[in-house]
Amino acid sequence: MPTLLLIALLSLGGCSTMTTTLEPPDTQYDTRIVEATTGRVLNVAALARQVSAADVVVVGEYHGHHGSHLLQSRLQAALYRQRPDQVLTMEQFELDHQAELDGYLSGQIGETELIEDTAAWDNYRASYRPLVEFARTRAIPVIAANAPADIVRCVGRKGADYLDTLAEERRSRLPRDPFIDTPAYQAKFVAAIAGSHGAGDPTMSKRMQNTYRAQLLRDNTMAVSILEAREAFPDHQILHVTGTFHSEERLGTVAVLEQRAPELSVAVISPVFWPDNQTAPAVEEYRQRGDFLYFIQPLPVEFRDPERERAAMTARFSQSGSTRCD
After folding, report:
1. Quick one: CA torsion of 70, 73, 77, 79, rounded to 10 degrees?
2. In this structure, what is the dihedral angle of CA atoms 170, 172, 173, 177, given to the nearest 10 degrees?
3. Is the pLDDT of residue 136 over 70?
4. Where are the domains of the chain?
5. How many Å apart are CA 228 and CA 217, to the nearest integer?
6. Is residue 240 packed enough to be buried (19+ CB in 10 Å), middle (13-18) or exposed (0-12)?
7. Phi, psi at residue 288, to the nearest 5°?
8. Which of 171, 175, 191, 261 is deepest in the core (most CB within 10 A)?
9. How many Å apart are CA 173 and CA 191, to the nearest integer?
């Protein structure tokens, strides 16, 4: 795979736009962007130049963080100014709603209809509307890249074999090999979901395996959606927006994408929370997370009770009780 180092070397022009001191973000909207290998501080225009030659630009986010979403929107515009041939691929829409998304982009339905018909995320208007509207007004293709939520839930409940029960029309939309992964990603996933709980419990182990397969189905579906977008729109740059767990450390969707198409150059941009003590962070501590890092203010603490936090995390990856998997 072409390295991002080469891309960086080819894109060093215009360095005068870069700042020299990493300052803490002032508000939840602000970001401080850093090139991971050098620690150089960039603005959005300089970041866009650095990744201008990449085939795929993956911007990880903390869902609902204002800084993540504002950076994505500004980078989308900056990349477009350099390479108008752009495609936006999104975790936030499921592939079986591509027709409705296309209908909105072509003016056949309105925004509320889009939100209702695609079961759009609750924060669509606040977080993703700017990306979609930028694309719509410039005829940029937008790809619904994620696996259908009901299928993901049923894989989490019943395991990988559930895919064999799907009608051919639905199964054919999913990747042929839907569970490609890497050992590092599995270890990270289990640590994030279970911690030390259930380490010797075979029942828990099987349940965790199913939950992990559901995660892999999302990652593989997004990776294949990106590759299909590349095939449908040759020479276009892909901008992919996704939760950072799917992309940081080049794991998840990025690892699958690189296994399926090692010839692609993929730039990974990952968020990092600014340290609580407000001192400038040591960039090398976070370097493995991506080719470029953007520091943002931490989100408010969701939980003070560790047990409630673990239960909530498990629930987020578990199946919905209303989903039928018969």
Report:
1. 100
2. 120
3. yes
4. 149-235
5. 16
6. buried
7. -70, -10
8. 175
9. 31
